[in-house]
């Protein structure tokens, strides 16, 4: 396996782990009260520590989304939009390494 293939495999593995980890914690919670986004947001910002983490992750996701969108337009590779969708549905821990994996093909 070449260095480039190893790097790409690493990023795909990180994206998979980044998808599994948030869902591992979210799905049991969602099963208790499905579809209650307001309860999710309330619990995600219950105290200053969790509010800080949530704000940091949301800001990082916004910055990444802008960067990935500009890169997709510049490179005319609309497939690079997929990591943005995964960032906002699963989490930045999935979308960002997937973006790196897709970019490592260049």
Could you explain how this protein is built, in words?
- The chain is mostly helical and 106 residues long.
- It has one domain.
- The protein is 81% helix and 0% strand.
- The protein contains five helices and no strands.
- Helix 1 packs antiparallel against helix 5 (92-103), helix 3 packs antiparallel against helix 4 and helix 4 (82-89) runs antiparallel to helix 5.
- The mean pLDDT is 91.
How would you describe this structure in keywords?
106 residues; mainly alpha; globular
Gist?
With 106 residues, the protein is mainly α.
Radius of gyration: 16 Å
Number of strands: 0
Uncertain spans, ≥5 residues at pLDDT below 50?
Answer: none
Give the mean pLDDT.
91
Morphology call: globular
Number of domains: 1
- N→C terminal distance: 17 Å
Largest sheet: none
* Secondary-structure-derived class: mainly alpha
The proportion of strand residues reads under 5%
SS summary, helix count: 5
Helix content: over 70%
Along the chain, the helix and strand elements come as HHHHH
